[in-house]
Amino acid sequence: MIPNLKNYLSLSKKEWNGLVVLVSLIILTMAAPSVYSLFHKDKIINFSEFDKAAALLKYNKAGVTSSAGNLGDTVHLFKFNPNKLSVQKWLQLGLSERQAGMITHYLEKGGHFYKKADLKKIYSISEADYTRLAPYIELPDAEEAIPVIELNHADSASLTRLKGIGPGFAMRIIRYRDKIGGFHSKQQLKEVFGIDEEHYLLVEKQVKVNASLLKKLNINKATFDDLRRYPYLTYKQVNAILQYRNEHGDYENLADMEDVAILDKATLQKLKPYLVFK
């Protein structure tokens, strides 16, 4: 009996080693939390960031909320000239670094704020931002005369006086103007290659258009080359206009041209200022 029990309880060397490893792992597992807490102190929660964010809310009057992203800086509202403000000052007013950067980029490109509402033209400035900042905007130079250039009469030298318009852009504007027969709207500057919305905003207040200077085209005498110069028409549309006229006679008015199947109303409205019918 005793020998059998002894054989039953005896452990081989391999089993004994396994038992030692198992017991060691259990001890290490139980001791781990104590060891960790000994070398890693709990981080004390700092409520200062929360307090700064709360301070920002004090400046958002009448429910107006700023879109500024850097709530870590306490907002400080003060009288300012947006044409002469550093990035750091914009941040103090509660704008984000991205907003301040876009304003700085606009000014560096030759932009200028002539009246308070011009600040709203900056893409990232929300209505809430403008409402909050408008009472503090001061523009002592707002009464300065802005040189205004008539686009259909200006030469390249005159055009280079515009902010952001160098000799290259000036020549593109003149070539495009001559191609279409003049500008009927200053918005057409955005049709000139390379002049995007940002460039247009720089010169918007410095240009005007005298639509009476347009060179108009008699649609009933127009040739293929006459019509092809308009960037609004494709080759197929030009051919369709001429073919319809040959088959049905002269066009009496713009409404007659709506019968040309591949001409849409948007295209006809672009052509309208340049066409005469008699």
Instruction: Kindly name the structural category.
Output: mainly alpha
Q: How many domains is the backbone divided into?
A: 3
C-alpha geometry: elongated
Distance between the termini: 131 Å
Determine Rg (CA atoms, Å).
37 Å
* Largest pleated sheet: 2 strands, parallel
Order of helices and strands: HHHHHHEHHHEEHHHHE
Can you give the mean pLDDT?
A: 81
Enumerate the spans where pLDDT stays under 50 for 5 or more consecutive residues: 47-73
- Main-sheet strand order equals 1-2
Strand percentage? under 5%
Note down, in words, how this protein is organized.
The chain is an all-alpha fold. Helix content is 45%, strand content 3%. The longest helix has 27 residues, at 13-39. It has helices at residues 2-9, 13-39, 48-57, 87-92, 97-108, 127-133, 156-159, 167-180, 197-203, 224-228, 235-248, 254-257, 265-271, and strands spanning 149-150, 207-208, 217-218, 275-276. The chain has 3 domains: 52-136, no CATH class; 149-213, DNA polymerase, domain 1 (Orthogonal Bundle), CATH 1.10.150; 217-276, DNA polymerase, domain 1. It is elongated, with a radius of gyration of 37 Å. It comes from Mucilaginibacter straminoryzae.
Give a concise summary.
The protein is mainly alpha-helical and 278 residues long.
Protein traits:
278 residues, mainly alpha, DNA polymerase, domain 1, two-stranded parallel sheet
Task: Itemize the secondary structure elements and their pairings.
Elements: H1 2-9, H2 13-39, H3 48-57, H4 87-92, H5 97-108, H6 127-133, E1 149-150, H7 156-159, H8 167-180, H9 197-203, E2 207-208, E3 217-218, H10 224-228, H11 235-248, H12 254-257, H13 265-271, E4 275-276
Parallel strand pairs: 1-2, 3-4
Protein name: Helix-hairpin-helix domain-containing protein
Organism: Mucilaginibacter straminoryzae
InterPro entries: Endo/Exo/Phosphatase_dom_1 (IPR051675), RuvA_2-like (IPR010994)
